[in-house]
Write a structure and sequence with these properties.
Largest sheet: 6 strands, mixed, barrel
Number of helices: 3
Structural class: alpha+beta
Distance between the termini: 50 Å
Strand content: 15-25%
Length: 343
């Protein structure tokens, strides 16, 4: 025993259950001494365990106390399941939120999710249909609301006005993930400021569904390098991939997979590919015109993006701000575009 308790299933004395044998003369003192020795041994083992000695067997996992809810696993809404919750609103002031987009969408219909549904960036770029008292609105997942509990959506002011009167401030809603929403165009890629042949990070956008994986390789041959998703929505290869141009293979949560080639090491520029995540493969057109804005100078020591503090959900109407201008894009060549789902 490792818990210091005495055994309760000791063998019965000879003569059958319920019958007590008389002790032999002179044995009482020996038995008492033996009991003291056993007790000392048990106490010693208990003290050894508390001092860090390795137990003979692993302790069972701690049970969740009665009346305490088990922790919720972080995962983005997927699959079209309808959820119930509540909605408030805020204004990103035209910024692209914790998902690191260059700007808010032009229609200003976006949402911030709590940590359990934002899921360390896994929800970025997905879409939700949110239904309130006045109707339904489709929003882009663009931001995180650190103080929001599961089921609490912090909508843009414009999105909230589509489903409820802003004077209400907070309303009950239902919402579901949109599977394969219409795409605004081919995939876009933005290499992070400070990236080099030795440190690589890319932001992928216009993919419709949440992403499951991003892989990168130098040129059009060689092995694929798996990139690690960061909670600010960039995909990172810490040791770099080389000087480029790169091929980038993107897979979403429903198994759609495509590959874009010709992504150049031009930090800070949005480069538009010629392949869509689904529903059409390569887009019409080609070529690679020059960028419409100069590339920012890489920093000496690349670090993950530090997002600015998000405004807290507000029940009071906020003043609207003009939409930020669209970021410049550089078209890319496609590399063996794939269509449909490939697991």
């Amino acid at each position: 025993m490792t818990d210091g308790s005495a055994p309760t299933d000791a063998p019965q004395p000879a003569g059958g259950p319920g019958r007590r044998r008389a002790p032999r003369p002179g044995r009482s003192r020996w038995l008492a001494a033996g009991g003291v020795a056993v007790l000392a041994g048990v106490l010693g083992l208990t003290l050894a365990l508390r001092a860090g000695a390795t137990p003979a067997c692993a302790a069972p996992p701690a049970a969740v106390p009665l009346g305490v809810a088990a922790p919720v696993a972080a995962a983005p809404p997927v699959g079209g399941t309808v959820h119930k919750g509540k909605a408030t609103f805020y204004d990103s002031k035209g910024a692209g939120g914790n998902c690191s987009y260059p700007s808010a969408p032009a229609n200003r219909l976006y949402v911030a999710l709590g940590p359990s549904e934002y899921a360390a960036g896994a929800a970025c770029g997905g879409h939700l249909d949110v239904t309130g008292p006045k109707g339904t609105v489709r929003v882009l997942v663009m931001d995180q609301c650190p103080e929001c509990a599961p089921g609490h959506l912090d909508l843009s002011r414009e999105a909230f006005a589509r489903i409820a009167d802003p004077v209400q401030g907070i309303v009950s809603v239902s919402y579901r993930a949109v599977v394969d929403p219409p795409l605004p165009g081919p995939l876009t890629f933005r290499i992070k400021e400070g990236a080099s042949r030795y440190w690589f990070a890319v932001l992928v956008a216009d993919h419709g569904n949440p992403l499951r994986a991003v892989e990168v390789r130098q040129g059009e041959s060689g092995g694929w390098r798996a990139a690690a998703r960061q909670d600010y929505n960039y995909w990172l290869v810490e040791s770099g991939v080389g000087p480029g141009p790169y091929s980038i293979r993107v897979t979403d949560v429903y198994g759609h997979r495509v590959t874009a080639g010709g992504v150049r090491l031009t930090p800070g520029q949005v480069q538009r590919g010629t392949v869509r995540m689904y529903g059409g493969g390569a887009s019409a057109g080609g070529g690679r015109p020059a960028a419409r804005s100069a590339s920012p100078r890489p920093s000496a020591s690349p670090t993950p993006r530090a997002t600015s503090p998000r405004p807290s959900p507000s029940a009071a109407p906020a003043s609207s701000s003009p939409s930020a201008p669209d970021a410049p894009v550089v078209p890319l060549a496609a590399e063996a575009p794939a269509t449909g789902c490939r697991n």
